[in-house]
């Protein structure tokens, strides 16, 4: 994948500028709204490079009007679109024609893959895997310091890929604006995802075994209620997707059972 | 003073849910020990973080989907259980706080909905200011929006803690004296409900491992 050659531009975006954009990207969802979704946070990320991309106030106005249009993506993976937009805006400043339309089109095309890949990787895999791993750590640790160690490890397990893709997305988007789709394919993240899927499965299994063992030591009644509550809530979930109904319904049912039978 | 400080901490951590950072510090296993440390009982903070974590794990805040605000509810619940630990009826205290947490998670979801609608108005204002070539105001509006959310969570937390600390001790004493021994099942039942709620995640993970189709839009 070769880098895009940009026509000579008197003002060059530096890595430091992109790093400042990366820092701004932590507020990507700050003004999330139903009309434009994350476009406000996305547009504000450009502030560190705005002076280099727009010379006059009118150019800045047009710039923001372009980027404040509807846009959505996974908050970490939106950085790919940020990098692409910065590079294309730079090309526009350098005098390349038709770039404005390309930005609009590319951003629209990126909405689905950035959302799907990011949601699947982070929300559906890495986040639950890391949190369950942290839970198991708390369960098996005997001292507060060990628990703290597991929490720190969980924090790192989540945030190392998070920070990496947030930053790398800007750099890759900037370096490869026209073939960015190659960098956001599901296959690219397959190995990482598999690692976290195994961590998730290991975590759930370890949680069930360790917690059951702890409960058996405390008394059989704990194990019985734990198992029954799990299956009852599972069955309830099949009839209703309402979180409040399932949770409170199951909880109150077992409270009543405990009052009646214990 | 302690309540104000705890409410301030919870409101700050709540920014991590979607608005800023998103580094997971608002999740119960991270926020629990922190709140426990502030309130003088880290061990209980760890235990409660562990207890509440599973419940909200499968609620993914993807796109415009508004989920129960489990993290805010958990943080308030953790603070409450620690503040009420002197009551002497731990199981009853946890039971009442848990029911309240479910209600708070619903209020939190409503708060998110209103906040997002308000952001729509901020967005309209921003568009007008951009048209008038006032760009710096965009930053002020962004910070203002975050402050509004922070204040709303602060008010929700502070009022919840105030009301609960006023009314729950009496109720705990009343119910605790009658049913404390029966309520030993509260913790395993909460964890059981949590385990059942993550079943969709587990199912998807198993499908991924076995190589079956899992593509979702």
Walk me through the topology.
The complex is a heterodimer of chains A (262) and B (217).
Chain A: H1 15-24, H2 39-44, H3 47-53, H4 57-67, H5 78-93, H6 99-140, H7 144-175, H8 190-218, H9 220-239, H10 243-261
Helix pairs in contact in A: 1-7, 5-6, 5-7, 6-7, 6-8, 9-10
Chain B: H1 2-14, H2 28-38, H3 42-53, H4 70-83, H5 90-131, H6 136-179, H7 186-197, H8 199-210
Helix pairs in contact in B: 1-4, 1-6, 2-3, 2-4, 3-4, 4-5, 4-6, 5-6
Q: Which stretches of chain A of 5+ consecutive residues score pLDDT under 50?
A: none
Please tell me the overall pLDDT of chain A: 93
What's the total count of β strands of chain B? 0
- What does the overall shape of chain A look like? elongated
**Rg over CA atoms of chain A:** 24 Å
Give helix % range of chain A: over 70%
- Strand-residue fraction of chain A? under 5%
Describe the protein in words.
The complex is a heterodimer of chains A (262) and B (217). By secondary structure, chain A is mainly alpha-helical. In chain A, 73% of the residues lie in helices and 0% in strands. Chain A contains 10 helices and no strands. The longest helix of chain A is centred in the middle third of the chain and has 42 residues, at 99-140. Helices cover 74% and strands 0% of the residues of chain B. By secondary structure, chain B is mainly α. At the A-B interface, helix 2, helix 4, helix 6, helix 7 and helix 8 of A face helix 2, helix 3, helix 5, helix 6 and helix 7 of B.
Give a concise summary:
The complex is a heterodimer of chains A (262) and B (217). Chain A is mainly α.
Short key terms for the protein model shown above:
heterodimer; A: 262 residues; mainly alpha; 10 helices; B: 217 residues; 8 helices
């Amino acid at each position: 994948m070769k880098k895009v050659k940009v026509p000579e531009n008197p003002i060059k975006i530096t890595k430091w500028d992109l790093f400042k954009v990366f820092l701004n990207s932590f507020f990507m969802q700050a003004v999330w709204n139903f009309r434009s979704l994350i476009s406000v946070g996305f547009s504000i990320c450009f502030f560190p490079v705005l002076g280099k991309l727009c010379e006059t106030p009118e150019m800045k106005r047009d710039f923001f009007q372009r980027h404040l249009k509807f846009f959505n993506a996974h908050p970490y993976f939106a950085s790919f679109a940020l990098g692409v937009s910065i590079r294309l805006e730079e090309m526009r400043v350098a005098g390349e024609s038709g770039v404005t339309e390309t930005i609009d089109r590319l951003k629209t095309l990126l909405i689905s893959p950035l959302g799907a890949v990011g949601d699947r990787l982070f929300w559906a895999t890495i986040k639950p895997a890391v949190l369950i791993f942290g839970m198991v750590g708390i369960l098996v640790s005997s001292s507060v310091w060990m628990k703290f160690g597991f929490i720190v490890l969980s924090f790192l397990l989540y945030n190392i890929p998070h920070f990496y893709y947030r930053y790398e997305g800007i750099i890759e988007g900037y370096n490869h604006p026209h073939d960015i789709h190659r960098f956001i394919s599901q296959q690219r993240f397959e190995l990482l995802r598999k690692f976290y899927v195994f961590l998730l499965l290991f975590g759930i299994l370890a949680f069930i075994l360790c917690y059951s063992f702890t409960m058996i030591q405390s008394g059989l009644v704990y194990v019985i209620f734990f198992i029954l509550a799990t299956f009852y809530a599972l069955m309830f979930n099949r009839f209703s997707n309402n979180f409040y109904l399932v949770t409170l319904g199951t909880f109150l049912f077992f409270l009543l059972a405990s009052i009646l039978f214990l | 003073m302690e309540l104000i400080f705890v409410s301030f901490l919870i409101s700050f951590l709540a920014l991590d849910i979607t608005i800023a950072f998103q580094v997971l510090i608002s999740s119960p296993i991270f926020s629990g020990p922190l709140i426990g440390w502030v309130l003088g009982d880290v061990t209980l903070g760890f235990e409660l973080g562990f207890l509440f974590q599973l419940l909200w794990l499968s609620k993914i805040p993807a796109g415009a989907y508004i989920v129960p605000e489990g993290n805010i509810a958990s943080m308030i619940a953790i603070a409450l259980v620690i503040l009420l630990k002197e009551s002497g009826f731990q199981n009853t205290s946890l039971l009442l706080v848990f029911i309240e947490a479910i209600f708070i998670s619903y209020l939190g979801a409503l708060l998110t909905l209103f906040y997002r609608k308000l952001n729509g108005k901020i967005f309209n204002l921003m568009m007008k200011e951009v048209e008038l070539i006032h760009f710096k105001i965009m930053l002020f509006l962004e910070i203002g929006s975050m402050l509004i959310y922070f204040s709303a969570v602060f008010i929700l937390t502070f009022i919840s803690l105030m009301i609960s600390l006023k009314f729950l001790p009496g109720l705990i004493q009343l119910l605790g004296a009658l049913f404390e021994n029966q309520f030993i099942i509260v913790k395993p039942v909460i964890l059981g409900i949590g385990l059942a709620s993550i079943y969709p995640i587990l199912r998807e993970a198993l499908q991924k491992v076995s190589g079956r189709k899992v593509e979702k839009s």
